[in-house]
Target: TonB-dependent receptor
Amino acid sequence: MQGKVAGFNISSSGDPNKSSSVILRGASTVNSPSGPFYVIDGVPGADISLVAPADIETIDVLKDAAATAIYGNRAASGVIMVTTKKGNKGNTQVSYSGIAGIETVSSRLNLMDADQHRAYIQSQGLSYNPIDDAGDNTNWQDQVMRSQAFSHNHNLSFSGGGDHNTYSASVNYINKEGIMLGSSQERLIGRLNIEQRALNDKLKFSINVTNSNTKSNLVPLQNTIFDQITKHLPVSSVYNTDGSYFENFNTPGYFNPVALINNAVDDNSKNNLVASFGTEVKLPFGLKYNLLISHQTLSTTSEQFYNSYYNNYNAATFKLSPEAGLGTVTSQVGTLFGKNGSAYKKLYQNKQNTVESFLTWDKSFGNHSINAVIGYSYLSNVYGDEISSSSTNFASDFVVYNNLSLGNPYAISSFRIDLAGGVAEKRMISDFARVNYNFNNKYLVQASIRRDGSSVFGANYRNGYFPAVGLGWRIDQENFMENQKVFSDLKLRASYGVTGNSDGISPFNSQLVYGVTGTYYNNGIQDNAYGPIQGSNPNLRWESTSTSNLGLDFTLINGIVSGSIDVYDKSTKDMLFKYSVSPALVPGGAIWANGGAIGNKGIELLLNFVPIKKKDFTWTSSVNLAHNKNKITSLANPFSDGDSILYASAGGEGQTGATLQILKVGKPIGQFFSFDYQGKNSAGESQFLKKDGTLTNTPLVGSDYFYVGDAQPKLLLGWSNTVNYKNFDFNVFIRGVFGNKIFNASRANLSYTPYASTNNLSSYVNADDLVSDAKNNYFSTRYIENGDYLRLDNATLGYSFNPTIKGVKKLRLYITSENLFTITNYTGIDPEVNQGGIAPGVDNNNFYPKTKSFLIGLNITL
Model:
């Protein structure tokens, strides 16, 4: 959908086990990732990964408030409605679609090779530790990556029906290797849909069941391994002459990344079940009653094992960088690996039950038609139901994580036995009503109101009210349009509505919480001391987003040109945010509260063309453009009267307290405030501009920050072209993002020259970047880059055979390629950096390589 739906922005990595980040019409909150809400076959909040692409019948993206407000508390960032394929009356139809291909690395980090690095340290008067210098030219990225990753996807479906029932069933199997060693995903999805009608079709029952089982192999200690492949010297070897792994434990924080991968496993299995039962009853007087009851269960098992090789790391401190783009670095002490192998296992379960009940009234009289709906919705979500355990000191590495009881952790005094568990429940109750009025198919009115009550908010503000109204005018139906031949369709739309957001907070965030605050001795026994660790906020309330939309749909020149244009104004207030306050005022020193407001204004244009339409040759083209302007309009909150908040720390060497972004009134989310780099002084030291206009090599965090750009794109582009010639079809899709900045914190961290004799460096380090310059990596304008790019996203060539084999209705063979090339000046791995969440536009630890793929596919229907 990215590039094909105006204002739709997706950021994804090459990791097969990581989901994409989706932003629709700009970031509307600073707390949750701002992703849209999914409704699959009427089930609200279903996981999109449950749906195999071959099973999708339609996808509708709802953006204006009149369309989304009926979903109330979950629709602030848009709604994506997915309808899967259903059965039809007739004989059983069997369809198969399969695709297989390879992926290769499309881009990787720009690091020095052995010759470049050796020349650099020699120019600095340094030399290698003889232990490290094997005279090799090792590309550590290549050592932990596959040259090619294979994948295949198969979908087999059956559908059919009789006079009173229809059915559809499918099985989907995916096997996909990641380009990183140790990473892969295998998934099996089964789906069944049955519809039964009775009493002259006045009564209909439907059952939908989908089950997905996913097995994922993750890269063990992925962030640590990425850290190691970037810092390992290219002159070092992977293996010693005796075949053992090369290690230099005399250098702190220096571990062989190949050894880390090959001596550990990190497996994850996930079972996702969604089942729904629906009934529809046609009643007298134009009434219809619908009931949909659904249940979702997500069960995951996470298992890790670090074999006895990790005995070497007991005295080590591993750098566990957070996910790409996020804040400070944390550490894990190597003694947690125990001795003679250590195993960890965690079981997690999430259950959600929903009830959607509504009554519809349809009535037409004369030129008037009315559709009215009143309904009730209930949701219960029990999540965080988990238990975890760990053990160490196994007799053999062959045990892996299969039997923790065979370990003897009590003999290792430094090992921490991990026993944890917890559970939380979130409930929501909603009432809603909607009326659609149509006069003479010219004038359209829609109005709705929804009340949502959620258990996550304070006692004083549990309920939120979300109204919406939409107007439509079919101009082409007016008498004064009868004699014109330009427009065959012309419709003006206007809407206003309010939606809510409760994502990102738990049922306990508004409550007074007690926990362990310390220990004390009681008659010689060490007991836990309990006390308040979180303060309550009974006034914690809904984050709400109001959206105004004005749109025009048009078709002209006998369908040769069609499209739409939309102008919108979206404003979010009472943003949910965790504020730091004095522990003397609030236990724990932090509290969730409402504060501030964000505005998004934009314009979206969609144009469809049919330049050529002949018997054997057709060319269709579609282009969409979207511009969004984001601005923080207020940061007022009960705990601060300031107009800015510093955040997004990337944790660079020698940069304690340094941040990359500031939430500031009048500026967009993701605005970069940093030092202004002014080159080198006469001593070869990095110098920066101070606020008083002078130069310094000791700038002050915050005080000497300047506004240096923002992460929000000014323009999103999608351009699709499809050519059909006889039985051939060819499609090419180009996507572009323009006008945004990226803070390349990864390049900054790889430019810390004082460690040059023990760590590799970015290939962008210059000869005048001296090893004596400890501020060479300071986050500054030096590492702010343009994020513009134009990408050939997809190209497909297919051929549909004329059926000559009895029983074969359709047969199509095609080849496709994805992410063929990208035009950009960005120096990082990929300019497609996340635009949502806590640190939009920050490229930090974003090391998993992007890939390009080449595939061949087959579709056949019997």
